[in-house]
Amino acid sequence: MARVLKTQGRRGEVKVEVLSNVAQRFAEQVKLFALADDGTRQELRVESLWPHQGRLVLKFAGVDSISAAERLLGCELQVPRDQRSQLEPGWTYVSDLIGCIVSDGGREVGKVNDVRFGAGEAPLLIVQAGSKEYEIPYAAAFLENLDIEQKQIRMRLPEGMLEVNAPLTEEEKEHHRNARKISS
Questions:
Q1: Which run of H or of E encompasses 104?
Q2: N or C, which end of the chain has less CB nearby within 10 Å?
Q3: Nearest CA to 41 among 77, 7, 12?
Q4: 170: part of which helix (H) or strand (E)?
Q5: Distance between CA 36 and CA 107 in Å, rounded?
């Protein structure tokens, strides 16, 4: 539903980036889970909320200081699976995408570790493939099939997309170092 961006105020409030188009899910007394990067979950209850500078500020019961709020930084806020709203066709919960295997034209690319927003119209799937990390737009134009039950995302990516953000080879790194020496 949302990702905790920063602390807000001195009484444990946090500013969040809303990732849901189901705005009514955010209300006082609603129970949410904060999912941390290490996979741990913490149950929270919304005490109060208000809009602020295009974001939403949430105050959770029992989170009453800046240091307590700091422990929530980066957490993804989720509702329990059985309390999720039914989504319109074509919409997907971000948490369902995490852990999916992405393939392109039958070739496995890697596993979705994260989803980032704000870099364009489509969210970016952060796909880990060994030591490589790819940023792949989760756009309808590239999506062939999504199977949440099997944790599979089949895509048809444009030629060269994976190479655009692939790590540099040693030869490319050496070329960049030499180019900088010449221009200095």
A1: strand 101-104
A2: C
A3: 77
A4: helix 170-183
A5: 31
31-35 and 76-78 strand pairing: antiparallel
Q: Which two tokens stand for residue 31?
A: 């129970």
Q: Are 103 and 109 in contact (CB under 8 A)?
A: yes
Average pLDDT, the chain: 84
Q: What is the mean pLDDT of residues 138-161?
A: 91
Are the C-beta atoms of 30 and 43 separated by less than 8 Å?
A: no
170-184 mean pLDDT: 61
Q: Taking a C-beta distance cutoff of 8 angstroms, is the pair 108, 162 a contact? A: no
Instruction: Give me the architecture of the 2-81 domain, per CATH.
Output: Beta Barrel (2.40)
From CA 115, how far away is CA 170, in angstroms rounded? Answer: 29
**Residue 12: which region, alpha, beta or left (left: phi > 0; alpha: psi -120 to 50)?**
left
Fold (CATH) for 94-163: SH3 type barrels. (2.30.30)
Query: Tell me, what amino acid is at 124?
Result: L
Per-position b or e across 10-35, b if 16+ CB within 10 A of its CB: eebbbbbebbbeeeebbeeebebbbb
